[in-house]
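Chain A, query sequence.
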Amino acid sequence: MKTPPKTAMLMSAGLGTRLRPLTEYLPKPMLPLGDRTLLERNLQFLAAAGFQRVVLNLHHRGETLRDFALKVCPPGLALDFSPEDPILGSGGGIGRAASLFFPDEPVLVVNGDNAFSFDWRTLASFHAGHDDAVSLLLLPASGREDLRTMALDDGGRVRSICKEGADPGPGRPCVFSGIYILEPEAHNLLPADRCCSVVELVFRPLLAVGGLRGLELDFPWYDIGTWERYARAQLNPPK
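Chain A, predicted structure.
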């Protein structure tokens, strides 16, 4: 029986190049959205969901982000930090930080430039209900075709992973939310000493053997990756 994750990792080391000049001096997780920063929103969500520990990887303006995270962290939530120099990407970032996770337990990974609101229990229950090592949280593709698209079958198995804007082929088209659960056998595949992609080293090999699961939910979600998407999110931020 799977153990529910008690650790979450916020992927927070990105340079935010498409949001310059704003991100020259401000790490992207510290961007304001409505009445709070992205980081405050994500930490508050994780604390309310019952997580005990959050790990942030740090690179661009890392000390600024670390100091701010300690200042706004909700009571009862422990923070750990995983500095990167050079930057290690989605795969190397998780691989470097894995020693900070609870031993032999899964981790929830969240892109630090996402804003969202969903029922964590739904994803946790989905992950507990199958034997595979990864569960991806997906959204309906309609209106989001410019983002990374995947095809999902009726049994919850991911059938394809495509580049942004590409046709995913047979199955129900979905968009990757940047939120996912990794069991130890998945995150142990990631190196701690080189830049690499979790998509290429974990997701695609599992996809090839039919072992990649996805849960489609329709929920408030924004990828704050460009000025256009940032402006769109400001019009109606998640609660």
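The chain has one domain: 7-139+178-203+219-235. Residues 7-139+178-203+219-235 form a domain with the Spore Coat Polysaccharide Biosynthesis Protein SpsA; Chain A fold (CATH 3.90.550.10).
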